[in-house]
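thought: fold this chain, then report.
action: predict
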Amino acid sequence: MISAFAGHSGIKYTKVDDESALKKDKSLEAKHPSLTLPYLKTSSGDIISTDSGIMGYIGRSSSGANLFGSTVFEEAKVNQWIAWAECIAPQVDHMTSMLFNPAKSADTKEFNAAVDLIKKEVSSLNNALKGKKWLVGDSVTMADIACANVLTPAFQLVLDAGFRKGRADLAKWFESFIALPQVLSSAGAIKCIGKALKPFGADAGAGKAEAAPAKKNDKGGKAAKKEEDDFDDLFGDDDDDGEAAKKAA
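observation:
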């Protein structure tokens, strides 16, 4: 999200993904005690962390981008949509983790509930976009960047063609966003899913009957008896040995 945002702002930056690099900078801990990613280090050496904190700084530092709108009202609306994106982000992350968690089969009911909640929230976004190209004002703002970036996995995985067809304003808005040069240069070509994916292992074994308990018949007993007889033939039967001993006496 930050890379796309910086691209819109026209700000040059160096991206560091290696958390081990944090420990190498001994002076960093004093200004950034949590030592977490992402963080931004300004030319003066000051530290800003978290996605919203970094993007707020970049957006207000950029000239002419109007990423927080051109009026006080528009800035308030942008902040409103940023908060909306931050609220729905955990649901999108949860849905994604259930889709690609190989450790265990996903709870289909739980997965469907997560997807339904995302669809409900995204439908409200569609309503807000009626007759509009962007969420706030006539150009791209932080509202569009925050919402689109949070929802990208949902569009790639579960918000399929059938869902998007009934929400034309939402679909057009997202398609316009991913076609922006700044998005293409930072994220590449983003494709929307045609048919929604299902979680890993969903309904695995569905329709398969559980192993039935053994019937109470003598087949099992006969098999056990046969194995016992074979064993006796191989090593000798204790009763036969007893009879042989009596005759010898």
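thought: worth noting. The mean pLDDT is 77.
final: tokens above.
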